[in-house]
Amino acid sequence: VGRALFNIRPVLQVLTERLPATLELSIPSFLIGTAGGVIVGVLAALYKGRRFDNISRVTAVVFDSVPGFWLGLILLLVFSVALGWLPLGDRCRTTLDPSCPPVWQRLEYLVLPVFVLSVGSVAVLSRYVRASMLEIISQDYIRTARAKGVSERRVWFVHALRNGLITLVTFIGPSVTGLLGGAVITETVFNYQGVGLTIVQAFSQRDYPIVMAVTIYAALATILGYLISDILYGVVDPRIRY
């Protein structure tokens, strides 16, 4: 694989020791963003035109429009500098460092970056789920289920939601890519020693072996993400198998 030019270490070793930090940041963001997006999207469709729907749509547009680096800096100024509730960053150099405490003893370092990453996912996914649910709820089989006397809760959360998961599966592909590739901007703002920050440092230092390795790594992560999406299409909707 080669050695990094800046610290004269194997490139694979550099990426391997940074990957756990990226995973401990991106996995909670993915879970919170996905669950929150589905819940908000379904409720917005269920209460279409009501207060919750209007507030969720406006909030989604706002958070989808706000740049991640700006939101991260504002949160640091408010909760770290002004209030002093959360640390500015500078967590362990790597999670493989023996002096680094377990993740449950440094959860305060995860709060702000996880919020920045997950709130964007909630904003985007909730709008897709809402639109998908409103389209599905007008289908013939939904009217048939209601005519049979099926409860409204079962209609929405069993019949409609199951068919609306195709939107979620489409969203998973790029999400897995980010899950493995690291959040470049967020890790840089919060000085989170993951793969994303390593990419920024490699470009600024012109560390070409790391840049080439990260390019291949990102390509493999992208292929894996969309492969998972294609497999899940057939799981969620058996008609796609044919």
What would your notes on this structure say?
- The protein has 242 residues and is mainly alpha-helical.
- Helix content is 74%, strand content 0%.
- The chain is built from 9 helices and no strands.
- It has helices spanning 11-46, 51-65, 68-82, 108-136, 140-147, 152-181, 184-189, 195-205, 208-236.
- Helix 1 (11-46) packs parallel to helix 9, helix 2 (51-65) packs across helix 4 (108-136) and helix 8 (195-205) packs antiparallel against helix 9 (208-236).
- It is globular, with a radius of gyration of 21 Å.
Short note summarizing the structure:
By secondary structure, the chain is mostly helical.
Radius of gyration: 21 Å
Overall outline: globular
- Summed over residues and divided by their number, the pLDDT gives a mean of 82
What is the N-to-C order of secondary-structure elements (H for helix, E for strand)? HHHHHHHHH
List the helices and strands and how they pair.
Layout: H1 11-46, H2 51-65, H3 68-82, H4 108-136, H5 140-147, H6 152-181, H7 184-189, H8 195-205, H9 208-236
